[in-house]
Amino acid sequence: MYNDSEIQEWIQKHGAVSSFTFIIYGEIKAKDIDTITHGLIFQLREKLNSGEMIVLYDPINEDEARAWNVYQGTSLAFIIAKDTIHLEDEIKEIVLHGLEFLRFKAKYLGSTSSDSNV
């Protein structure tokens, strides 16, 4: 799923991770990402078995936008320890609502789940 060594370690440690990816059509600041993340944690605190989450966001330049068939902007991914795919609809709604509140146009790209197969 990911080449990042920290995420690979997470997969080994937790047995599985789930990721939820969004595209934001614009540049977003770290404080805005923090706001969205805190809102997600607050609203799902009872349902998340583990409080462990990695949030990755990267700008998408013109070349990447063409390769991914998306528009320029920012890629935002929430990687959550354990299999949390069953929370996909709630995560999608919370994040998109938060981004809309902050006046960002965004789109949900989808989710993936990876396990260690051990």
Outline the structure in words.
The protein has a four-stranded antiparallel β-sheet with strand order 2-3-1-4. It has 118 residues and is an alpha+beta fold. It contains four helices and four strands; from the N terminus they run H-E-H-E-H-E-H-E. The chain has a single domain, classed as Alpha-Beta Plaits, CATH 3.30.70. The chain has helices at residues 5-14, 30-44, 62-68, 88-101; strands spanning 16-24, 53-60, 73-81, 106-115.
In short:
Helix content is 39%, strand content 31%.
Could you list some keywords that capture this structure?
118 residues; 4 helices
Topology:
Blueprint: H1 5-14, E1 16-24, H2 30-44, E2 53-60, H3 62-68, E3 73-81, H4 88-101, E4 106-115
Helix pairs in contact: 2-4
Radius of gyration, in Å, reads 14 Å
CATH topology: Alpha-Beta Plaits
User: If helices are DSSP runs of H or I spanning 4 or more residues, what is the number of helices?
Assistant: 4
Please state roughly what percent of the residues sit in beta strands, choosing from under 5%, 5-15%, 15-25%, 25-35%, 35-45% or over 45%.
25-35%
**Low-confidence runs of at least 5 consecutive residues:** none
Largest sheet: 4 strands, antiparallel
